[in-house]
Write a structure and sequence with these properties.
By secondary structure, the chain is an alpha/beta fold. It contains 6 helices and 10 strands, in the order βββαβββαααβαβαββ. It has a 6-stranded mixed beta sheet, sandwiched between helices. The protein has a 4-stranded antiparallel beta sheet with strand order 2-1-4-5, covered by helices on one side.
């Protein structure tokens, strides 16, 4: 991976008269955990979607691993942005197997390993429609990490988790980082940021400012 996992230059995103990203320039160093805090509507989710190639900037540029972001870039990024759209009538394992079949990059063993790492039983036959909110969120994290991406973009990764779940997922993120993953995350929980992040930024009205 390049020295910087993500490089953003003068990024502007406008929706008619609303400025969601206001000329953001930032570089996220590879191999670290970077946190972004900010209120709902501050621009964090739009920023993440632009990094992942889900939205196009009005102007400016974003590079991921030294390459310009374009549609399809997200295939190389592990992503949690909003709740994943799983098929409710299938089990968690079958949902991930179906998604993995699109790229054919990983085996059943790696799918099972991802489920186990987030605290879910790969053999559980329960339909996802009957999962608790915390279980669905763990499944979303398993989806994000199962192909072992070098970059993880996680928008509120602790949402829906109980106290023990938060502890477990924090530990998992630390392990993934030690294994070489760069992580950019947002969280409403100050402790997540304090415990996990090497650098911290605040997003306010589309303006990104480093605060730690």
């Amino acid at each position: 991976m390049a020295e910087y996992a993500v490089e953003v230059s003068d990024a502007l995103k406008r929706f008619k008269e609303t400025v969601a990203l206001d000329h953001v320039t930032v570089r996220f160093e590879a191999g670290k955990i970077h946190g972004i805090v900010g209120r709902n509507g501050s621009g964090k989710t739009v920023f993440f979607k632009c990094i992942c190639g889900f939205m196009q900037l009005t102007s400016g540029s974003i590079m991921v691993d030294g390459r310009p972001v374009k549609p399809g870039t997200a295939q190389e990024i592990g992503i949690i942005i909003e709740e994943p759209g799983f098929i409710g009538s299938l089990s968690g394992y079958k949902n991930l197997k179906l998604l993995a079949s699109i790229r054919r990059k990983i085996s059943n063993r790696e799918i099972r390993e991802a489920l186990e790492r987030v605290g879910l039983d790969p053999n559980l036959k329960k339909q996802v429609s009957k999962y608790s909110m915390g279980m669905r969120h763990r499944l979303g994290i398993a989806q994000a990490i199962m192909e072992k991406p070098k970059l993880l973009i996680l928008d509120e990764p602790m949402n829906g988790l109980d106290k023990q779940g938060v502890v477990e997922i924090r530990q998992l993120l630390k392990e993934l980082n030690r294994e070489g993953a760069t992580i950019i995350l947002s969280s409403h929980y100050a402790e997540d940021i304090d415990v996990l992040c090497d650098t911290v930024y605040e997003m306010e009205a589309g303006v990104l400012t480093r605060i730690a």
